Structures are given as structure tokens and as C-alpha cells.
Amino acid sequence: MTRPPQPATAAPNAQEGRVVASYGRHVLVEAPDGARTRCHPRGKRQQAVVGDQVHWSITGDEGVIEAVLPRRNVLFRQDEQRTKVFAANLDQVLVLLAAEPAFAEPQLGRALIAAREAGIEPLIALNKRDVQPAFDIAWERLAPYRAMGERVLPLHLHGSDGTARAECEALRAHLRGRVTLVIGPSGVGKSTLVNLLVPHAQADTQAISRALGTGRHTTTRTTWYWLDDGAGGALIDSPGFHEFGLHHIAPQTLARWMPDFAPYLGQCRFHNCTHRREPGCAIQAALAPHGPIAPQRWRFYVDLYEELDAARAP
Ligand SMILES: Nc1nc2c(ncn2[C@@H]2O[C@H](COP(=O)(O)OP(=O)(O)OP(=O)(O)O)[C@@H](O)[C@H]2O)c(=O)[nH]1
Ligand SMILES: [Zn+2]
After folding, report:
1. Where does the CP-type G domain start and stop, copy by copy (predicted)?
2. Any binding-site annotation on 184?
3. What distance, in Å, lies between the first and last C-alpha atoms of the chain?
4. Nearest ligand to the C-alpha of residue 191?
């Protein structure tokens, strides 16, 4: 390449903006006045993600990202052998589950670890309250999460009765003024939720497709939607659930991000206890029925510990 090296931030006409959608290496950047411009990264390694604040400048009819401003936090996605950043600067992660399809607990557990480790508050919502008895069974499966202090909301997104509206209002109150990433397995009602909370979502998505030149398949991309809450809140819709990247986490620190384990840390006989099979382990002693920790949480922990350990092996 013959292009001379570019300074990272010193482009004379650089302006500030926020990344509101991404498609491959291209992103859509929103200026403070709301105008959106398709931008590409300056270098091979730099990658801006949805939620990023950036400096960018115009080159022809496209923009170029000059610099990604310092991030408050990031979430990773597992992409074959690599962990890649896919969203930044979040306040909250909404894990949307439903009475049906039944959720897989390890997926929920992984999402909560990803959020807690990044310093982002998780929020769990269980949709399809009208589907019985599946809803009550699923609600009961979430008892350990309520007991460890996680917020768990019942939802009936596709209902018109008064309770359904009250539940939606309760959810809105948790989203107000915050930037929330919404994740959940297919079929739980994620599109229903986005369309309910963001009446202009479909129009936004079409405009984003046109701007990014991606055709009709942008629903498989991460997208930022403003909430009309008068408080600067936004939803980030992102596909997928299972592929949260956790391999940057050291297995020895894993228990810290599990609120049901955290109260027992430092109480084991060995200071470097991994809480798997050591004697005198305070966490194993706190497993039900002797204590409050649900056995499936401990099995989840052991499996994830071993996965993280194997991922570190040279
Ligand atoms: N019974 C019931 N069905 C609901 C409720 N909310 C959404 N649904 C239905 O669940 C189905 C899936 O909803 P979507 O919003 O398409 O789900 P999604 O999570 O976006 O699914 P994908 O597009 O596969 O990712 C639709 O048929 C909705 O009408 C609810 O509260 N109760
Ligand atoms: Zn221990």
C-alpha cells in the first residue's frame, strides 16, 4: 500500500458520532444532529462496534472512522476460535426468555456471566405468561436467579388485558434512560418486544439496510434503536445468544461473577480453591439441600471452569 500513515485522531474535519449498526467491516454512524453516514474503518485492526463513540470524517460519499473513543465496557462474541467485541458502552443486558421454547440454563448462565464480568447489569424477562403450565414451570426454574438477587420480570407481550399492559409498563420503567442490549433465543418474542417498544423499528431497519447496502437481511445484525422515552434510552437488538465470548475470563475469577457463589468466596480451606473437588470448600458445602446454592449452578460452574481452562491451554 502506498497510502501514508494516518494520525489516529488528528483529522482536521473529524466529528464525533455513535455507531448505530454494523455490517461486516462497515458501520453506520449517527451524528449528534441525527444524520447517519456509512463509514469504513481506517485500518485493518480497528473495528468500531454498535454503541461505540467515534471520531469520523467524510471521504467522498462515505465516511472513515478515525478513532474509536475509550469504551466504558464491551461484550464479546465467540467466533470459532476468536473472541470478538460486538457491542460497547452498555448499561444493561436484557435476557429475554419465554414459557416456550424452554430455555437452556447454561445459555442464561453464560449471558449473566458475560454481563456481570463486563460491569453491566443483567435483567431477565420471562415472556408468554399466558402459556400455561409452561410459564409456571419456567418461572420456577428461575427461582435460583431471583434468590441470588437478579431482577426477573414476567411478561405477556402479545396480550391486550390490563395485566399485560402493566407488565409492559414495568419493563419500560427498567429500560428508561438506559442503553439496553436485548438477547434471547429464537421464538421468545424478541421482534414482538422491539416492535412494541420501538414503533419506528421497521422503518429504521429498512433505512439502515439501504444506508449499509445490505439487502433485506439486516435482522441478523446488531442494531441500535432509540426509545421514545424522553430520557435517551435505547435498545440494541442483537441476534443469537449462545455465542457470548467468555474465553477472556480467567477460570480462577469465574466464581466472582456468580452472585450465588460470591458470598462464600474467601471461606474455603485452600485460598486457591477452585470449588470443584477440594475438601473444605465453602461453596460445595453451601449446595442444596445443606445451603442455598442450586446444584445445577455448581455443575454449570464446573463445566464452564473447565471450558475456560482448556481455552487457556497453550
Ligand atoms: N402466547 C404468546 N405468544 C407470544 C407472546 N409474545 C410473542 N408471542 C409469539 O411468539 C412468536 C415468536 O415471536 P417473535 O417476536 O417473532 O420472536 P423472536 O424472538 O423475534 O423470534 P425469531 O424471529 O425467531 O428470533 C410469535 O408468534 C409471537 O406472536 C406472548 O406473550 N404470548
Ligand atoms: Zn471452594
Report:
1. 77-244
2. yes
3. 34
4. 1
- Name the pLDDT band for 1 (thresholds 50, 70, 90): very low
Domain spanning 15-68: which CATH class is it, in words? Answer: mainly beta
ipTM entry: 0.97
| Predicted confidence (pLDDT) per residue in 39-77, tens digit | 999 887 778 999 999 999 998 889 999 999 999 999 998
Q: Which of 97, 158, 205 to mutate to test the pocket of ligand 1 (most atoms within 8 A of CB)?
A: 158
Architecture of domain 74-237: 3-Layer(aba) Sandwich (3.40)
Strand locations in the chain (E):
15-23, 26-30, 36-41, 53-59, 62-68, 74-79, 82-88, 92-98, 121-127, 152-154, 179-183, 223-226, 234-237
Listed by start position, the domains of the chain span: 15-68, 74-237, 251-312
CB 304 within 8 A of CB 116: no
Do the domains 74-237 and 15-68 match in fold? no
Helices 105-118 and 295-312: crossing angle, nearest 10°?
60
Confidence (pTM): 0.92
